[in-house]
Amino acid sequence: MRSEMRVSGVIELKAAPRPRADIMALFFDSSGRVGRVRFLLKISVLILILAAYDAVARGEVHILTGWLVDWPLFFSAACVLCQRLHDRGRAGWWSAPILLAFCVAWPHPHGAVGGVALAATLASGLWLGLAAGEPGFNRYGPPAPNP
Questions:
Q1: What distance in Å separates the CA atoms of residue 43 and residue 98, rounded to the nearest whole number?
Q2: Alpha carbons 117 and 57: distance in angstroms, whole number
Q3: pTM for this model (two decimals)
Q4: Is the preceding omega at residue 107 within 30 degrees of 0, hence cis?
């Protein structure tokens, strides 16, 4: 797509700006809204990366390198959850209790607290993954393009 610009009789063609669709925008931007399908894809990618890292890095390796992997994944999950919560008309801070429940339940829930955390994680995942977003504009922007 091109736009024209006339400057003193000379036509100058400029390329229209493209929407930013790089990794940083996909996983490290908490603004806007995201639909169910993209949310499920993004969260699945993050969980697969976390599971692969936990399977490979054990013991001292995980202690030494965990902060390089876990914190960016945690921040990415918070951003993706914020976008989905925005699509549902909720504030992004609600991602904090969801992430807390996930951290308590991952990788193996222990005791009653772990069971409650697992149930809360599954319930919020089902709610965010299956419930439709708000139709039309809300205070977080235009509706997400996918279901």
A1: 13
A2: 24
A3: 0.80
A4: yes
